[in-house]
């Protein structure tokens, strides 16, 4: 039953998302790509032993390519969290490839799993016509020249999260990892015993020395300083609310 539902979702994506992007010239937002990657994982055919594909190709217009490179680590972390929440078996840590494709309209994008062929794995670098790796990201890259991004080593900001859940003592959680999943379940780094929090609610990521929060499609949403958010940079004094739990960001020592 999940496959027909996934096909129905893709049908409505074509009806609503793509025309809106073309009419209003909106740029591709990382949260849109992240949700489409998760749906692609849900709908992908399973491999030997029931494994889920671990490699995904995201094709965007070359003008949208450069703005997504920094978001690739959050795409990978989101796929890992999604696979764990759904009980999927991954062959390895997921890889997300971004490709500039002029045939894709600005503000639109395409996501599909990549089925690995037999033989040695391709190098994690840009593949040109001669097969030689070249550094950097080209916003003019044709579809056959694909950049595969490895998650870079992120500078973890010095921050402490003050976690307040009704009926629970206040917790001080020091940020020490490049990504922190939060939700109602022991599989999360930050486990929140709150019935209004989803099992995979959100993801905190270190990015360029700062802290970025992304909602992972939670049921009740995420709010920062009273406003609902999909993805937002956080700083000292910001208050993130998920369910009935508040998380205040403070400067670490």
Based on the model shown, name its key terms.
253 residues, alpha+beta, six-stranded antiparallel beta sheet, five-stranded mixed beta sheet, 28% strand
| Major sheet size, sense and barrel closure | 6 strands, antiparallel
Give the structural class: alpha+beta
How far apart, in Å, are the first and last alpha carbons?
51 Å
Helix count, per DSSP? 4
Given the C-alpha coordinates, what overall shape results? globular
Order of helices and strands: HHEHHEEEEEEEEEEEEEE
Average pLDDT level: 76
- Strands of the widest sheet, in order across it, are 6-5-15-14-11-12
Determine the oligomeric state from the structure: single chain
Topology record:
Blueprint: H1 2-24, H2 30-43, E1 55-60, H3 62-65, H4 72-86, E2 95-100, E3 109-113, E4 147-149, E5 159-164, E6 171-174, E7 179-183, E8 190-191, E9 202-207, E10 210-215, E11 222-224, E12 227-229, E13 231-234, E14 239-242, E15 245-251
Parallel strand pairs: 1-2, 7-8
Antiparallel strand pairs: 1-3, 2-4, 5-6, 5-15, 7-9, 9-10, 10-13, 11-12, 11-14, 14-15
Helix pairs in contact: 1-2, 2-4
Q: How would you explain this protein's 3D organization?
A:
This protein has 253 residues and is α+β, with helices and mostly antiparallel strands. Helices cover 22% and strands 28% of the residues. It has four helices and 15 strands. It has helices spanning 2-24, 30-43, 62-65, 72-86, and strands spanning 55-60, 95-100, 109-113, 147-149, 159-164, 171-174, 179-183, 190-191, 202-207, 210-215, 222-224, 227-229, 231-234, 239-242, 245-251. The strands form three sheets. Strands 6-5-15-14-11-12 form a six-stranded antiparallel beta sheet, with no helix packed on it. Strands 8-7-9-10-13 form a five-stranded mixed beta sheet, covered by helices on one side. β5 and β6 (171-174) form a beta hairpin. α1 (2-24) packs antiparallel against α2. The longest helix has 23 residues, at 2-24. The N and C termini lie far apart (51 Å).
């Amino acid at each position: 039953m999940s496959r027909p539902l996934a096909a129905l979702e893709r049908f409505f994506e074509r009806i609503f998302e793509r025309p809106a992007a073309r009419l209003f010239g909106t740029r591709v937002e990382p949260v849109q790509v992240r949700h489409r990657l998760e749906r692609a994982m849900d709908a992908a055919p399973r491999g030997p032993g029931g494994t889920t594909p671990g490699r995904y190709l995201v094709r965007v217009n070359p003008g949208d390519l450069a703005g997504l490179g920094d978001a690739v680590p959050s795409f990978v972390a989101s796929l890992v969290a999604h696979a764990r929440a759904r009980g999927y078996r991954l062959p390895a840590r997921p890889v997300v490839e971004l490709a500039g494709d002029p045939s894709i309209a600005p503000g639109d994008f395409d996501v599909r799993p990549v089925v690995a062929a037999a033989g040695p794995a391709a190098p994690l670098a840009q593949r040109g016509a001669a097969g030689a790796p070249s550094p950097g990201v080209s916003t003019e890259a044709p579809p056959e020249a694909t950049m595969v991004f490895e998650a870079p080593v992120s500078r973890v900001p010095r921050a402490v999260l003050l976690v307040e859940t009704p009926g629970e003592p206040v917790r001080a959680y020091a940020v020490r990892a490049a990504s922190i999943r939060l939700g109602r379940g022991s599989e999360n780094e930050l486990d929140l015993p709150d019935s209004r929090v989803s099992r995979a609610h959100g993801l905190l990521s270190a990015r360029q020395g700062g802290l970025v929060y992304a909602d992972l499609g939670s049921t009740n949403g995420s709010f920062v300083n009273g406003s609902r958010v999909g993805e937002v940079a956080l700083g000292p004094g910001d208050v993130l609310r998920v369910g009935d739990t508040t998380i205040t960001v403070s400067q670490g020592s």
